[in-house]
Amino acid sequence: MKQAVIETAGWLLFSAVVLALIAGLTAWLPGYLVGIPIWLAALLLIPLVRRSQLRQIGILFGIGLTGLLFGILNGADPRYLLQALGANHSVVGMLIGVSFLRIVALAGIRSDEALPHGRKALWHTLFGTHLFGSVINVSAVLIVGDRLTAQRSMQPLQGLTLLRSFCICAFWSPFFASMGLTLVSAPGAQLGTLILFGLPLALVALLFSAWEIGRHPQAAQAQGYPMHLRALWMPLLLALLVIIAHQLWPTISVLTLVTSVALLFTLIWLPIRRGPAGLGEAVRHVRVGLPTLRGEILLFAAAAMLAAGVAATLSSLDLNLAPAHFGPLAACVTVVVLVLLAMSGMHPVTSVVLAGSVLAAADGDPNLLGLTLLMGWSLGIGLSPFSGVQLSLQSRYGMKALELLKLNRWYAGVMLCCCFAVLWLYDGLMGAAH
To answer: CA-CA distance, 382 to 198, in Å (whole number)?
Structure first.
């Protein structure tokens, strides 16, 4: 019976991504109808979510529902109910679509080679896992981490390498949840602009990380992962396809384009490489793989409730907490606040939703807000001992939170300064352009 419930949730999530694509590509479906199968799947998957994570999700949902009911009873527009029912369907649809790419990616990263040693091996691991993770998210960290720890425990330097390779993706990757939620939370922000300024920032972060890793006393003896071109061609090609698609169809949501590219690529690649068995793998992913996204699904659904509740409450009270103008100074302050919230244990989904709910109404450039949210997300998950990736490194590989915190001390200061510089640079360039 339990397996039947899990498979039912998987098919509900698959129907949600199909409906999300129909809604994104046409005007046939309203968003709240797409959210219905997401909420149904979330209800079925609740018993499988870790208690600690469920507690956080419950708090978000409870606060959001309370705010929503208060706002509606106090005269807010009932459309906020439909916003909550929508369950962040565009972001959830993207997460589901991108998850299919794991089937393709695993074929390129499997390797039985001996693990290489030294600085170059760690550098290859840093950049390779970054590209790999920019498409399949935290799965890349776990795949590489499991291989590194097959015969020995993970060293702090290896853990730092995996952490940096992952968290830096949030600066720019169109396949990352950070980009999806940012485009929703900063209406009007443009993917091309966010990548144009986020990618150089990511490169600086990677180069600084490579320098830090290379000068560490353990670097010469530490093992890395044997990265090859066959493991890295996919993220490069997919990112290029999304950018081209966005240029060809600028009116279609980037989240819809990312979801479409991920699904089409997988469904074309699998039969070509593996024949009929390939489609069987896709079906197996629906039945078994999609339900493993339960934590993310519930979190984004609860975040939709929270966003609707905050908006309904502010609307009913006629409150506007946004500054008169959202400029580079406000953006820098917001980045610091987002990082501090992450350090206190708040999930970036929550902090980005809250920041977007308050700041989107301010007079300012939506791209500046988008860059701010991406920076807060990346630095938050990289520095906070409570972020999902750090908790995975701690629980799965025995990494110590204080050790990672110590290794991140210089990175925190350097990257905050770099983020501030990019925000002021962007504002200066846009001001000169106008």
So the answer is: 16
**Straight-line distance from the first to the last Cα atom of the chain, in angstroms, rounded to the nearest whole number:** 62
Residues 6+ apart with CB under 8 A from 134: 169, 172, 173, 175, 176, 235, 239
**Residue length of the chain:** 434
Contact 132, 109 (CB under 8 A): yes
Residues paired with 223 in a beta bridge: 117
Distances (CA, A) of 73 to 68, 84, 302: 9, 16, 21
Block residue for tokens 């896709």: 282
Please, which residues have CB within 8 angstroms of residue 161's CB and are 6 or more apart in sequence?
122, 125, 126, 129, 209, 213, 224
Indicate the SS3 state at residue 223. strand
Yes or no: say if 377 and 410 are a contact pair by the CB < 8 Å rule: no
- Greatest alpha-carbon span in the chain: 66
Q: Could you tell me the mean pLDDT of each successive run of 10 residues in the chain, 434 residues long?
A: 87 95 88 93 92 85 93 88 89 88 68 77 92 81 82 90 96 90 92 94 97 92 79 76 85 87 90 83 92 88 88 82 85 96 86 88 90 97 89 85 92 97 94 66
DSSP assignment of 363-409 equals: EE-HHHHHHHHHHHHHHHHHH-TTSHHHHHHHHHH---HHHHHHHTH
Specify burial of residue 337 (Cβ count, 10 A radius: 0-12, 13-18, 19+): middle
The label of the residue with tokens 């720019």 reads 172
